[in-house]
Amino acid sequence: MGCNLAIAGVTGAVGQEFLKILKERDFPFDSLKMLASNRSAGKKIEFKGKKYIVEELTKKSFSRIDIALFSAGGARSKEFVPAAVEAGTVVVDNSSAFRMDADVPLVIPEINPQKIQEHKGIIANPNCSTIIGIVPVWPLHKANPVKRMVVSTYQAASGAGMRAMFELESQTREILDGREPTCEAFPYQIAFNCFSHNSALDANGYNLEEVKMVNETRKIFDCPEIAITCTCIRIPVLRAHCESINLEFADPITPEQVRDLLSTAPGVSVLDDRENNRFPMPIDATGKDDILVGRIRQDASIAENRGINIWVAGDQLRKGAALNAVQIAEKLL
């Protein structure tokens, strides 16, 4: 059974990934409406052998639309999602606008698909770093509750959109040509550099990305007591995020048990080749649906073998954004 589908923010990095994934997974739709800002209205996009004209996103865009995939930014989501819901559309929103609303399900299909049916018109897609970090942690947490998580992220330019990816490429060329790098999408040089995530800081010195990871993990795991601390960093990589994750469990656990649990976990692939010192890299994860996990080892600093370190890599535009939203839409059908 198909549906009448709309994509809001279709010309952006995640919007383009939506199209790629809808095609790959042969998502069933009867009609497709492509929406973007007035700057992009009128552009032609070819999809599955048919030419579509991008329309301006307005509050009247959602008549007879069943499902809308939104990746138009938080401000636009706040402005247009309520109108979509009022028109009877179910919105899967990729922004942070509604994630922490009590009556909005925050969903990763490998973890809490049952929450999808509780929607009141909006289902929130979690932050990309949250998704990439906790898809592999969930099967471990189910087997042996995680008491504390320490996460350090190494985040690709794609997390800041298409302009940021272009900026990484253009700055690299500028610097190699001996010119000053142009900084527009990011506040600092991203090429040949890394810096603290460029989201706003709170009174305690944590940036918004770090706060999102803490709050979203607790909501998705339905575990408000889990202790989490994060440090989020931008690195000069185009599109796949990496994370170093230190876990403290309630009971003893071995690296072998972790490998066994992850080897059958949905959405996860283990790449943990100690013999050849070969572990997940951004280039391994790019274009892949699964989150790659390696560097699985005991944390000797935590008593009674209750500590484990893992390293993960995941495509920020795929599972970190577009794929997760499309998987939710598939379950809606």
How is the topology of this model organized?
Blueprint: E1 4-8, H1 13-24, E2 31-36, E3 44-47, E4 50-53, E5 55-56, E6 67-70, H2 74-86, E7 90-93, E8 122-124, H3 128-143, E9 146-155, H4 162-176, E10 195-196, H5 208-221, E11 227-234, E12 240-249, H6 255-263, E13 268-270, H7 282-285, E14 291-298, E15 307-315, H8 318-332
Parallel strand pairs: 1-2, 1-6, 2-5, 6-7, 7-8, 9-11, 13-14
Antiparallel strand pairs: 3-4, 9-12, 10-11, 12-15, 14-15
Helix pairs in contact: 1-8, 3-5, 3-8
Describe the structure.
By secondary structure, the chain is of the alpha/beta class. It folds into 2 domains: 135 residues, NAD(P)-binding Rossmann-like Domain (Rossmann fold, 3-Layer(aba) Sandwich), CATH 3.40.50; 187 residues, Dihydrodipicolinate Reductase, domain 2. The chain is built from 8 helices and 15 strands. The strands form 3 sheets. Strands 10-11-9-12-15-14-13 form a 7-stranded mixed sheet. It has a 6-stranded parallel sheet with strand order 5-2-1-6-7-8, sandwiched between helices. A two-stranded antiparallel ribbon has the order 3-4. α3 runs parallel beside α5 and α3 packs across α8. The longest helix is centred in the middle third of the chain and has 16 residues. The radius of gyration is 20 Å and the shape is globular. The protein starts with a strand and ends with a helix.
